[in-house]
UniProtKB/TrEMBL annotation:
The keyword Transmembrane helix applies. The lineage of its organism: Eukaryota, Viridiplantae, Streptophyta, Embryophyta, Tracheophyta. It comes from the Eukaryota. The chain crosses the membrane at residues 199-222. Residues 98-191 form the MULE transposase domain. Signal peptide: none annotated. Keywords: Membrane, Transmembrane, Transmembrane helix. The keyword Hydrolase does not apply. InterPro entries: MULE_transposase_dom. This is Putative MULE transposase domain, FHY3/FAR1 family.
Length: 223
């Protein structure tokens, strides 16, 4: 159940639904919580090591073409983790002319940013070209990310779409030298709507002040 990101209480309720009654589950809700606590204590501070080990084992035994890379900080803590499997590479080979990567997804436990590389297939559906977890959003981190992505897929995209992030822009200019950088249309329209609203508000306020001034001047003419 932990693989489905279910807590002990929800996992217990799922088991109850599967077996029909609470009595048929075989354990209590408290025992579910205790077992979850024991797992967390066993993992401790080695969760990042377990992820890297899992990717390494997967590359050895089931997906030899799996690409992954990671970096750590001065205290040997995970700073960035990138992975790209066979399906992602195939997607990029077929639909990788235009890619997008977005850093707006932040996990709630580790405060790391989830950065997926995505595109659109011939059915106008999203496809994935790779994914990353980042602990910081600096230009150096994005340069590392784009370099390992380029190493995994083998070629630069023709167009890359991002939001207006200066660190992304710098990294793209360093790594994707032959790629055209475009801003996301949603981001452009969002900013445009805000600016148009502010412009409308300013002009509305000015017109309102002018009308009040004209009304005041008109009253002065009668006295």
């Amino acid at each position: 159940m932990s693989k489905l990101n279910l807590g002990p209480v929800k996992a217990f309720n799922v088991m109850k639904t599967c077996f029909g009654r609470f009595e048929d589950v075989g354990v209590s809700k408290v025992e579910f919580k205790n077992y979850k606590r024991q797992i967390n204590l066993f993992i401790g501070e080695y969760d990042a090591d377990m992820v890297v080990k899992y990717l390494n084992e997967k590359k050895k035994h089931s997906q030899p073409n799996l690409s992954y890379d990671y970096i750590t900080d001065e205290e040997n803590r995970l700073k960035g983790l990138f992975w790209c499997d066979d399906q992602a590479k195939h997607n990029y080979h077929v639909f990788g002319d235009v890619i997008s990567f977005d850093a707006t997804y932040r996990s709630n436990k580790y405060s790391m940013v989830f950065v997926p590389f995505t595109g659109i297939d011939n059915h106008h559906c999203n496809v994935t070209f790779g994914a990353t977890l980042l602990a910081s959003e600096t230009a150096d981190t994005y340069i590392w990310l784009l370099r390992v992505f380029l190493k995994a897929v083998g070629s630069q995209p023709k167009v890359v779409v991002t939001d207006q992030d200066p660190t992304m822009k710098k990294a793209i200019s360093v790594v994707f030298v032959d790629t055209r950088h475009q801003l996301c249309m949603w981001y452009v329209m969002h900013k445009l709507s805000l600016k148009v609203f502010m412009l409308f508000y300013v002009w509305h306020f000015r017109i309102h002040c002018i009308l009040k001034y004209m009304a005041f001047c008109t009253l002065l003419l009668f006295f």
